[in-house]
Amino acid sequence: MKLKLSLFLARRYLIAKWSLMSTLSILMIAFGIITLITVLSIMNGFHNTFRRKILETNSFHLIVQPNYDSHYTIDNSISILSNNKEIISIVPYYDGEGIIKTDYVTRGFVIKALPQNILDLDMGFNREIDITRGTFDLSDDDTIIIGEELAREAGVLPGDYVSIVTFEGKDLASARSKFNLFYVSGTFKTGYWEYDKNMAYVSLEAAYRIFNIERSELTLGLKIDNFYKADRVVDWAHSNLRIGHYIYTWMDLNRPLFEALQNEKVGIGFVVMLIIVSGAFNIIGSLIMTVMDKKREIGILRAIGAEPHLITQVFVFDGLYIGFIGTVIGVFTGFLLTLNIESIFNFFEFIVNGIRELVYLFYLMPLGRLPFHEFEILSDSIY
Prior knowledge:
Elements: H1 2-16, H2 20-57, E1 62-65, H3 74-81, E2 87-101, E3 106-114, H4 118-121, H5 123-128, E4 130-134, E5 143-147, H6 148-154, E6 161-168, E7 176-189, H7 193-198, E8 199-203, H8 204-211, E9 219-224, H9 230-240, E10 246-249, H10 250-293, H11 295-303, H12 308-339, H13 341-364
Parallel strand pairs: 3-8, 5-7
Antiparallel strand pairs: 1-9, 1-10, 2-3, 2-6, 2-9, 4-7, 5-8, 6-7
């Protein structure tokens, strides 16, 4: 009975005289919840997309490296690994380095050798790689597919020939340079700038020729149906493969990067939580002012026999009402905003770019100046 009375009085106090402090408290709580949901949703989307692009286009969920002894055959390892139902694709590949030489640039880059049928062999790679120009064709051992940023810097397009210098030998002392001429069949974009600027794909047959390697020197890249269960597959592989294989998970290969992304999300979440704490202090201030304003009513309640803890409950429930209303508004608005965030960003981009075009037409173009860069809140290639 006393609890119902406390709830009734708290609701009456809140509705009967809706104060500015109560409104501000609700808005602060709602704004904090909206910001928290929206920011963390965007960061989660960014991290998931970023991780997926890295793992699908350059790294793998698991890497299996042989010990290069005389008893190792890559086909035997592939046959053993194929028995695990959690492994959905096994890709033999080789990572090498070379120097690209054009009229515009001379610098090193990473050459990743893949099977000719990689698009059929690895559906994740097929899904995430974006061929911006030309075609993804590794059918010949003299074709190369270059990252979009690297191609732009080197000044090459699909159909051009590019000179690449590679080195044969196990160490620097015995390394011999080798000149190679490759036909550029296409350019790709992963959405990760570092890969697009410093990587190119060739076929395994090309790697055998330009690096003077054998099939036994290839590395196996594994994709599994759930990369969060990589440790379980590692344990299985250790117990089934020949002793001497080195196995690395995607976290082992990219630990600094992914830990930095996780720490970034935690830091942003903590900062946004401060907004909610600010709203909580507003609720406290609102309750204090309500108590001071209700001294007469409190005196009447005490005179008719209300106990101190009942009066305390009234104002505690008053604060809970404010927090609950603010949270409901914030959650509803936050999810609504998050679900339509792309349309909202596109609308703002449209408005800003429209103003940019008007400024260019009426002010910059008559003066012979170049237009501003197109405004973009979030890059479509990453977010």
